[in-house]
């Protein structure tokens, strides 16, 4: 299965997470600015951090506009959100929730939902039916759990 991870990263953290996941999955790791290539893959993973009060990482604004013109029907899609639950507990990983809202009705098969157990936040657009819509990483407050969370998630989405 041809797999790609499209990431938006400002500080490098999301790019680092995407790289780790990409290595484990044998996936191409591409910046979100290359989202035009999404139709070339059977499985696409969208990775982003959340900025400000629940905003997308800058590269994802144009990428989402382009994504709306693509045929994702029948594609396997997963999401990775990077956030800070202590500093932004009321908008924790909202950006993957925003991406999910945009793509959920495009005929995709969403894979990789994860439990909210072990996180401490008050609100998140990324929670649907009591689960995160993807892998959630908090490098600021729980970096010691990052590799364990990535490894478990990769095994689940394989």
TrEMBL record:
Function field: Low-potential electron donor to a number of redox enzymes.
Protein name: Flavodoxin
UniProt entry tagged with the keyword Nucleotidyltransferase: no
NCBIfam families per record: flav_long (TIGR01752), PRK09267.1-4 (NF006738), PRK09267.1-5 (NF006739)
Keyword Transcription regulation attached: no
PANTHER family associated with the record: FLAVODOXIN 1, FLAVODOXIN 2
Family: Belongs to the flavodoxin family.
Sequence ranges assigned to domain Flavodoxin-like in this UniProt record: 3-158
Required co-factors: FMN
Domain of life, per lineage: Bacteria
Xref: InterPro entries: Flavodoxin (IPR050619), Flavodoxin/NO_synth (IPR008254), Flavodoxin_CS (IPR001226), Flavodoxin_lc (IPR010086), Flavoprotein-like_sf (IPR029039)
Molecular-function GO terms, alphabetical: electron transfer activity; FMN binding
Organism per entry: Fusobacterium necrogenes
UniProt KW keywords: Electron transport, Flavoprotein, FMN, Transport
